[in-house]
């Protein structure tokens, strides 16, 4: 008797699998539990895509009369299953192809016997049958609840390690602004807007606060660098530019900003300045003269008054 398409497919898979196993010799290697679940999730996602893709198909051309007789309805046929299973993995994905090969009979069982009662393939296959995943909000070999409970892992403020897989340790990596084992505490620079045993909302402090109890510059416990407390105990900007000596070099002027300051280059006509532009010089640079408060290019006759060149008449050149 001739082998069916599915049997041929199996044989090919087996051959490629044996080759790969020989190549890598990983038959008994302990698999990364989290990546096994990721692989399984990918397989069941691709199964759903394949299911949709084949939804409007039928046997079409190329099927033998034997197949037509044996498989009366494409929708629930082995042919359709085969077409879906063929595209579950990228050919280069060793883990995926191995998992499909190893558990191919489960797809048949589900397809012919379990699909109606257990329509969620991921749940039936990855969680309950081959046990590489856990329900959402649980982790580890026994699918224990994540910190904070399976409904709201990490109280909704973080990510539970191994969530939904048979791996991980269930500990929380808190989102930005949150800290602590349960992700209920606020990080420095954040304050609790709402807080109870199971819920916490941390909001960023005002930009002037290092730590705070509320959202304004008057709610700071401590001011950030570049800010100082005023008479009303609010954090206000330090004007670094009013300091003597200046915080900047001689050929720069100081520009005060909220929480900081910067040093900017003076105009090239200036020798020292208070702001940008040729009219903000403290004195004019060499070769420039003060003309009604603005430094301009010195005219040649004026230049001669201060130059030894005048005496030898070189300015006429
Ligand atoms: Ca400042």
TrEMBL record:
UniProt GO molecular function: calcium ion binding
Signal sequence bounds = 1-29
In what residue span(s) does the EGF-like domain sit? 142-184
Source organism's superkingdom? Eukaryota
Keywords carried by this UniProt record: Calcium, Disulfide bond, EGF-like domain, Signal
Q: Name one Pfam family in it.
A: DUF3456
Matching entries from InterPro entries are given as:
DUF3456 (IPR021852), EGF (IPR000742), EGF_Ca-bd_CS (IPR018097), Furin_repeat (IPR006212), Growth_fac_rcpt_cys_sf (IPR009030), LE_dom (IPR002049), NOTCH1_EGF-like (IPR049883)
Task: Spell out the coiled coil positions from the record.
Answer: none
Say yes or no: keyword Signal present: yes
Q: Got any disulfides in this one, which pairs?
A: 174-183
Q: Which family does it belong to?
A: Belongs to the CRELD family.
Q: What is this protein called?
A: EGF-like domain-containing protein
Q: Which organism is it from?
A: Amphiprion ocellaris
Q: Which gene encodes it?
A: CRELD2
């Amino acid at each position: 008797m001739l082998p069916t398409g599915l049997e041929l497919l199996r044989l090919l898979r087996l051959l490629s699998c044996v080759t790969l196993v020989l190549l890598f010799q990983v038959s008994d290697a302990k698999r990364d539990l989290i990546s096994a679940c990721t692989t399984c999730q990918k397989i069941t996602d691709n199964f759903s895509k394949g299911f949709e893709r084949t939804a409007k198909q039928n046997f079409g051309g190329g099927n033998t009369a034997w197949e037509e007789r044996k498989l009366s309805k494409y929708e629930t046929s082995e042919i359709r299953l085969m077409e879906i299973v063929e595209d579950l993995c990228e050919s280069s994905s060793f883990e995926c192809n191995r998992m499909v090969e190893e558990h191919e009979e489960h797809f048949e069982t589900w397809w012919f016997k379990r699909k109606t009662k257990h329509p969620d393939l991921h749940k039936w296959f990855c969680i309950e049958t081959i046990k590489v995943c856990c329900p959402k909000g649980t982790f580890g070999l026994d699918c224990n609840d994540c910190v904070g409970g399976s409904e709201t892992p990490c109280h909704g403020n973080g990510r539970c390690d191994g969530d939904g897989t048979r791996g991980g340790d269930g500990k929380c990596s808190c989102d930005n602004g949150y800290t602590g084992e349960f992700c209920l505490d606020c990080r420095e620079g954040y304050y609790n807007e709402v807080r109870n045993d199971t819920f916490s909302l941390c909001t960023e402090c005002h930009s002037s606060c290092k730590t705070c109890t509320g959202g304004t510059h008057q709610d700071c416990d401590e001011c950030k660098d570049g800010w100082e407390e005023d008479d009303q105990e609010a954090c206000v900007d330090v004007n670094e530019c009013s300091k003597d000596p200046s915080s900047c070099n001689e050929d720069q002027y100081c520009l005060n900003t909220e929480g900081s300051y910067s040093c900017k280059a003076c105009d090239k006509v200036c020798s020292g300045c208070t702001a940008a532009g040729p009219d903000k010089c403290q004195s004019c640079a060499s070769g420039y003269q003060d003309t009604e408060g603005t430094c301009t290019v010195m005219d040649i006759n004026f230049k001669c008054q201060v130059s030894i060149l005048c005496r030898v008449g070189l300015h006429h050149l």
